[in-house]
Amino acid sequence: MFTIEVIASFNELETSIYNYICQNGEKVIYMRIRELADETHVSTATILRFCRKVNCEGFSEFKVKLKWHLEENKAIQLKGSGHSVMEFFERTLTGNLEENIREAARVVSESDHVIFIGIGGSGILAEYGARYFSSLGKFSVYIKDPFFRIQANSNSVTIALSVRGENDFTVTHINQLKQEGSKIISITNSKHSTIAKISDINIPYYVTEERFENADVTTQVPVIYILESVAREIYRLTQEEN
Fold this sequence. Notes:
By secondary structure, this protein is α/β, with parallel strands linked by helices. It is built from 12 helices and 7 strands. The protein has helices at 4-9, 12-23, 25-28, 33-40, 44-53, 59-75, 81-92, 97-109, 120-135, 168-179, 194-197, 221-241; strands at residues 113-117, 140-143, 156-162, 183-188, 201-204, 211-212, 215-216. A 5-stranded parallel sheet has the order 2-1-3-4-5, with helices on both faces. A two-stranded antiparallel ribbon has the order 6-7. The longest helix is centred in the last third of the chain and has 21 residues, at 221-241.
């Protein structure tokens, strides 16, 4: 309801109104303009100017829009973490997940080093994956700078993480790394995404995607399970060779 541009345009008094509404939205929708003016210590004229800045002709229209906004936020019901984990196991473990994990581990174990890529929440897990793999003896790095020049070859493996599998940053990096000879392993929510299709090995995990306002809050528990499973399988293969 309040865009960044609108918030930036507020003066000091309008900002105080904005702060009050954010903290007392359920109360404001039942207030009269004079009551809000008294609570925020401003004039009714200031409140009307505030309403016009958020594209409302008056306080009545503002209250209607505020009520809609509050109801939309209430309508968002996030699943419990237990439900998401069970969904993952029910959908994925009945398929060929373990086979994909073993194949990915075999490819990585035969490589010289591993490059992890991803952005946002996937980037955080990519960094975790690089640390976890390195802790179990497989040298790995995480690349988070989109302008960082990556040197790869036929003896390297890239592990790309992406929920939707359509991120331009990750697709661009994969394309560059493939041209340099790196094998590509992707972990995505679906095997039908662009990143999955251009990978040598894709490990999909199939959970229902969830968004809250503009944020992707899809569970990442399956990704952690897959990363740790691959790393442990690599360690097992290495021990067998020794």
